[in-house]
Amino acid sequence: MQAPGDGPAQMGQEQPGQEPPGVSVVIAVYNEADNLAPVCDELFPALQPLAPFEVVFVDDGSTDATAAVLADLARRHAGLRWLRHERRSAKTAALRTGITAARSPWIATMDGDGQNDPRDIVEMLHLARAAPSGAPAPLVAGIRARRYDTLSRRLATRFANRLRQAVLADGCPDTGCGLKAFRRDDFLRLPAFEGMHRFLPALFQAYGHPLLCQPVAHRARLQGRSKYTNLGRALVGIGDLLGVLWLQSRTRLPGKVTEG
Asked: Among residues 16, 178, 224, 255, which is most buried (max CB within 10 A)?
């Protein structure tokens, strides 16, 4: 199935005479039709300090009107691109599709349910770009100072964060926040597996990139319900945690490389 917007730009290539965007904001969505318009109404004005920019939505095989809404929004907002998975592949696969298709060397990710404040992206991208010349670019991770979720979800997240830090020592108090900023090529060099988006701090650091934690706002979901359950996340997360621990132990960096 050919995704909407297929063509040279889908794989991160520039169209002739086209100015490259300063940032590509990648948003993976599944059955978020009711949230997309208000998210875009807030997102596009918030990104104006970063112009030129693009927003890349990836519809992960939604069964509601998400695709139709994205098609309409693409006509209303210059710089909006959207891709669609033929079937649901889960969040990491959708993010990777969007990041691969992005035309900017700088990526910011956020969720499509309205819980993230897009105004935080401007400062996060500034921090990501501020690395000294020649130094590895950081991963800037949004840290939700105050959570607007159910008590059960907050408790489950707190337990998961403490367990992850105890095992991986990644120094990140909140890996579940959708707001992150990083270089596109650095992400694409990481090992790909479903669930990796929850372990980006540990993976980026294993590949020699510093971690910057940036406090960000958090809000209640606009419409609908979360697609994940606490039990489902826990069962999958334990296996992923052990897998990332193994990757950490087996990753070797060569240090400075010179050509003779």
From this structure: 178
Q: Indicate the pairing of strand 80-84 with strand 53-59.
A: parallel
Smallest CA-to-CA distance from 116 within 169, 47, 171, 48 is with: 47
Confidence of residue 100 (pLDDT cuts 50, 70, 90): very high
Nearest to 183, CA basis, from 210, 214, 144, 215? 210
Angle at 112 between CA 127 and CA 60, to 5 degrees: 115
pLDDT exceeds cutoff 80 at 78: yes
CB of 180 within 8 A of CB of 106?
Answer: no
Mean pLDDT, residues 50-79 = 97
Tokens of 108: 């910011």
Query: For the segment 140-177, what is each residue's pLDDT rounded down to a tens digit?
Result: 999 988 766 666 666 666 767 777 777 777 888 888 89
**4 or 20, higher pLDDT:** 20
Strands in 180-183's sheet, in edge-to-edge order, are 80-84, 53-59, 23-29, 106-109, 180-183, 139-144, 211-216
Residue ranges and CATH numbers for the domains of the chain are: 21-250 (3.90.550.10)
Q: If you average pLDDT over residues 100-109, what whole number do you get?
A: 98
CA atoms within 13 A on the CB side of 195: 14
Residue among 2, 94, 15, 13 at smallest CA distance from 56? 94
Distance of alpha carbon 230 from alpha carbon 153, whole angstroms = 7
Distant-in-sequence, close-in-space partners of 89: CB < 8 Å, separation ≥ 6: 60, 61, 194
